[in-house]
Request: fold
Amino acid sequence: MTRRKLILIFSFLLAVSLMLGHFTSRAEQHETKKSEKKAILLVAFGTTVPEAKATYNRISEQTTKTFPSYEIRWAYTSKKVRTILKKRGEAAQSPAEALAQLGEDGITTAYIQSLHIIPGDEYDDLKVTAAAFSGIPKGTKIVKVGDPLLVSDADMRAVAQSINSHKPQDMDTTTALVLMGHGSRHPSNIYYPAMQYYLSALNSNIFIGTVEGTPTLDEVVAQLKQRHIKRVWLMPFMLVSGDHAINDMSGDEDTSWKSILTKNGFEVSINLTSLGEFEDIRNIWLKHLSEIVNK
Ligand code: CO
Reply:
């Protein structure tokens, strides 16, 4: 090989390596800039009750305080709720719509926090949607989902403790606190009877029933009678005091829990404070969010 040829090959290789270096560092800079664009997406079932929005606002505020450098957006998993809100002219995105919008706005990492109670259908669907939006070209690259309220023994204990500390002041041996949970046909409904175990360990006069699962209200009524309860406080075991709390729990219709308990001879009082109103409970959702943000 001649000296000229060697020099030629050498300079060619040098040029290639310089170009590669240039492109790599440009690409890296590009990536770094992009990876800095992160946002939090809070996802709830949604509610059509305007007053319940105050609870969402409190969650927004506390999330902003905990994660001040992140933009926070909302999405609702209930199509029915979204349709009603849109008819009223309110913004209501599904998780998929919100994720598509985040990607369009240059967000590459989305931290979704599920504000659901149990890892049921809404949460399962959210995980599927999040997976579908992971690695979208020119869109969201990383999409992570934080656990709902109840997943671990620690969550169960913390929630039971919070409920016990927020129970009505006037409770005596003949007064019971009955919580209305949503309930589900999903296997995760098991968290509700499990919650009864944790509640009973702290206070034998706190009961939990569900609208759509186990324990049923009938089962709770049987327990109340067995324990010779005379007065009942009703309280929602839900994120917000929405349609279920206002109508199914405390409404005047014959089928409401208030009416059924009254018919069964109990003196009924209503407390519409929902789970999302308690700071120590909001902290559990935020703890689950920090588990994915700080991972
Ligand atoms: Co419902």
In short: The beta strands are 38-44, 71-76, 109-114, 142-146, 175-181, 206-210, 231-236, 267-270. The CA atoms of residues 46 and 76 lie 5 Å apart. The mean pLDDT is 92.
